[in-house]
Amino acid sequence: MMEELQLRITENKDWATVLFVVAFAIIAITKSVYENRFNDFSRLIFSDKYAKIYRDSSHLKSSFTASLFFVQIISFAFFILLTLNIFGYASKTDWLLYIQIITFLFFFIVSKYLVEKIIATSFNMEEFIEQFNLQKVTYRTYIGILLLPINAILFYYDGFSTNVPLIIMIVALTISMVAYIISIKTYQNAIIGKLFYFILYLCALEIAPYYFMYYLFTKGNI
User: Fold this and answer.
1) Is a pLDDT exceeding 50 seen at residue 58?
2) Which letter does DSSP use for residue 204 in this model?
3) Which of 113, 165, 190, 201 holds its CA 20 to 30 A away from the CA of 149?
């Protein structure tokens, strides 16, 4: 009697493991190099000390911000891929799709930043927008780092409810809204002086891009 051979399909998770290790290694190295700053950063959600100390726009291009920016991109790309997987639209081990997501995120954020620079220069509010951007990047990076261990759990374990990514998104949006409120309160004097341009900035560069992304995704054009 001949044995029936069945093809065993194995999922390749090595690429994800490497990325998780790299991301956690970057965090560990950054913490060791900038110990005091990282400690203040880790308490960002409980204290505004970090936001007050590192509010100068020069910190936007520092190695601390740049290194954690890559962690942020890795983390958000994983979360998008895992959310698509939980809702049944993709496989969480699809590394080609992950590359597409992380590439899109990188160019979206960089392109948005460059457009903001151009508009800020045109409206003579470059310093203010740089400081405002630093606040946004700081809180977005904080969310990305918080997501990283959650992403690892979601990746290596199956059977999570669709409510899980929704709850995570609600929490992330809540933190983002708090960040906006804090930033607006911090720079309220500068905002009042350029209120029209600030409203234009919010509509054109903070609301419109995400609305169009939502529209394209929901209409199935992407």
Assistant:
1) yes
2) I
3) 113
